[in-house]
Amino acid sequence: MERAEHMIQNIIKSRIILTAFCGTSAEKLIKDIKDYRTILLPNDKVKDSDKLVNAIAKDKPDFVISFGQRPNIKNKVHIETTAKDGELQLETNFDCDKLKQLFNENGMNSKISHNAGTSFCNCLYWNGLQYIFQNNLDTKMIFVHIPFAKNITDFASFRKQIFDAIERMR
């Protein structure tokens, strides 16, 4: 029975894709994570989006959780609701309030934000959401900003809080 439950857990976890940009605190966050499909992005707007879209098309995940780093925050995360392209906006199909609640229940200070930035993070988020919506996929995508590593007091604890919340997300 235990083996069957473990197999089911692995199937569920494999339906989640995590992304992070190389050379950032987000890479450190997902590096060496074995339970989920992880994608390290090369910090090239076209290649980053291509890698994400190709993974979504191939794997058809239930969830995509993309991580980026944001300066000027400390020991907390920003849950991004919106990707922008000029005057156009795409709102996530992810339950941001539920994720915020799960983070808070795990001791993680979190904030709902409506600004995924103006560069790499926003571009990845826009292209991922656009692909999901244009193809009528059931995939839910969220972008989460974390602090620079130097602004995280206890990285191991911070990481555990994030992944405990993700575990409970299902």
- Helicity level, as a percent range? 40-55%
Question: What is the strand content?
Answer: 25-35%
CATH top level class name: Alpha Beta
String of helices and strands: HEHEHEEEEHEHEH
List keywords for this structure.
170 residues; alpha/beta; two-stranded antiparallel sheet; 6 helices
What does the model show?
- The chain has one domain (2-169): Aminopeptidase (3-Layer(aba) Sandwich), CATH 3.40.630.20.
- The chain has helices at residues 2-14, 25-30, 45-59, 96-105, 120-134, 155-169; strands spanning 16-21, 37-41, 63-70, 76-80, 82-85, 88-91, 109-113, 140-147.
- The chain has 6 helices and 8 strands.
- It is globular.
- Strand 5 (82-85) and strand 6 form a beta hairpin.
Topology:
Elements: H1 2-14, E1 16-21, H2 25-30, E2 37-41, H3 45-59, E3 63-70, E4 76-80, E5 82-85, E6 88-91, H4 96-105, E7 109-113, H5 120-134, E8 140-147, H6 155-169
Parallel strand pairs: 1-2, 1-3, 3-8, 4-7
Antiparallel strand pairs: 4-8, 5-6
Task: Describe the structure in brief.
This protein is α/β, with parallel strands linked by helices and 170 residues long. The protein has helices spanning 2-14, 25-30, 45-59, 96-105, 120-134, 155-169; strands at 16-21, 37-41, 63-70, 76-80, 82-85, 88-91, 109-113, 140-147.
